[in-house]
Amino acid sequence: MRPSAYKVMLLGQIGVGKSSIAQRLVFDRFDTSYKPTIGVDVYRYEAKTIEAEPVPMIVWDSDGNLGDAMFRHVYLKEASAALIIGDVTRNETIEAMPAIAAAFRERLPGRCVCYLVNKSDLSPPTPLQGELARDDTLLFHTSALTGENVTRAFAETARAIVRRAP
Q: What is the pTM assigned to this prediction?
């Protein structure tokens, strides 16, 4: 039986654009004033896929301050997927993405993981090597500012969630 909505986590270090991605996705806007997330913000979104009716999602925009504690927190309970976000202008955030993905996969094996390399409007996309190029991980270059690939990333994540669901 399909749940009423799938829980999707936005994970990544501070300042990578998790909240901006959520705002672009849900409200189709970009706010130039930076307000860090304290704890978690929750949004409802219906991802449109080409195969079927929209896939309802509950998007959890987590703060980037929890580190490894995030994976022991109730926030992750029953998550169907994680979109792990890095900032293309800050290499350390890109390098941290595989460890975040590994911790998520360890806690919730078999769930969908998608990498979003955000702020592509500030730097041309470059080929990503190693862990970010895994065959079973979705990867998108996004821009919360312009909206590039934001809805597409969520639509493809929705498709992967539905394919993996029992």
A: 0.88
